[in-house]
Amino acid sequence: MVLPTIFIELLFGVGVAAYGAILLTIVQTAVVHSNLRLNAKLIGFLFTTNAWHIRHHSANRAESNTNYGCAAIVWDRVFGTFGDSGIREAGIGAREPSTMEKLLMPVREPYGSAIAPMRETT
After folding, report:
1. Fewer CB atoms inside 10 A, N or C side of the chain?
2. Percent of the chain whose pLDDT exceeds 90
3. What torsion do the CA atoms of 120, 64, 68, 39 make, to the nearest 10 degrees?
């Protein structure tokens, strides 16, 4: 998530703005994946909070095909992919992937996990 901002800084030299974007991205990612109760009405309407983002990690297909926004949940609201009900189970498998497996997730699924099923089209 931070890599594109670093490339923009290296290519165009935007300076402090790029570093600010990196810092905000890191903080937002930490908040979204935390177990803190931070879903205030105004914040939760515009920005993704952990209460909204956990739904994206649901083991249930219908639940996981929602709340894609990492920072701004407002886009899920606009495009109809927002979901606000609770979930039964979250996660990707029977075990926690190692740090190296997490780094390789964009190109290789960790051993013992299941790829989230794609939304069926009719």
Report:
1. C
2. 5
3. 150
